[in-house]
Amino acid sequence: MELVLDRLTKQYGPKIAVDRVSARLRPGVYGLLGANGAGKTTIMRMICGILRPSSGEISLDGRSIAELGGEYRARLGYLPQDFGYYPEFTALDFMEYMAALKGVDARAARARSLELLDRVGLAGEEHRRIRTFSGGMKQRLGIAQAVLNDPDVLVLDEPTAGLDPKERVRFRNLIAGFATDKIVLLSTHIVSDVEYIADSILMMRAGSFIMQGSPAEVVRGVKGMVWEARVPVRKADELASRVPVVNVHHDGDGMATVRFLSSEPHVAELSAVPVAPTLEDLYLHVFDESGAEHTGAAVPVTAVEGQRCSRRRGVHFGGGRHA
Questions:
Q1: What whole-number distance in Å separates Cα of residue 92 and Cα of residue 95?
Q2: In Å, how far are 96, 189, 226, 253 from 233, measured between CA atoms?
Q3: CA-based angle 111:112:117, to the nearest 5?
Q4: How distant, in Å, are the alpha carbons of 86, 104, 125 from that of 93?
Q5: Are residues 159 and 197 in contact, defined by beta-carbon separation less than 8 angstroms?
Q6: How far is CA 174 from CA 109, 136, 314, in A?
Q7: Which pTM value belongs to this model?
Q8: For 145-154, what is the mean pLDDT?
Q9: From its phi and psi, is residue 271 left (phi > 0), alpha (psi between -120 and 50) or beta?
Q10: CA separation (Å) from 5 to 12, 88, 103?
Q11: Choosing a second label site near 87 at 20 to 30 A (CA), which of 15, 143, 150, 206?
């Protein structure tokens, strides 16, 4: 199975939201990263057929998704940033309603719905009205509905928004198990979630992919630039005015451990030690705190279009395709 984006472009008047993006996606988890306005949601909506490209094409196994029509939609699962629901529906009502819309066999719909509600930690809540749910519970319900039809292509826009740390771990395990033979594309502002779960990273800036590769491959762009130093707390603020600071840990004795990015030799004066880079370090290097492009040294693009993704073990959703 292969989903191909071929010179995909979306333009609104003079504004180009997505600019000739190309990629080959095979089964695995793809983390889509970029600042607000980079084009992430626009790409996802085009993949889901909600938006039509201004030019370029999306194809699945050699056939245009426009040509596939309903056949493609039957193989697709989607969680938008803000998914719609009827507040007076119970969780089970909603799942069965979505199952009908997705063409899930009516005889299997209830069992499949209850199974997925259990998988996302909503067992025992199936008869509660959605309007009484917390934000995290609603998000888990959205994840459950996205996989009702056991999709081949799963698109998740900010799926961990509103989830607490325990719920995020559950989500990562679920997706890791689900993605063994599926194409999963997810975006999130929680970079550590992507680093943990993704087989491949797609980083966007100004409507284009600027990096593609495994987490280990793309972070090589900041190798030798990530440091930690233990300094007086007052010096931590001074350091933040000179270099991008990833985080500051106050040690409680008037000292702080500062993780920062720098390619300059002045780090020696701080007795800083080099540390292994993470995806968050890379993200901070490429974008400043406001989400604007960083003006420092360029990070080389890792071109690995069509790479074979590794398979991560996890909790399996279970259930075959229902049609």
A1: 5
A2: 56, 28, 19, 9
A3: 100
A4: 9, 14, 12
A5: no
A6: 20, 16, 6
A7: 0.83
A8: 95
A9: left
A10: 19, 39, 27
A11: 150
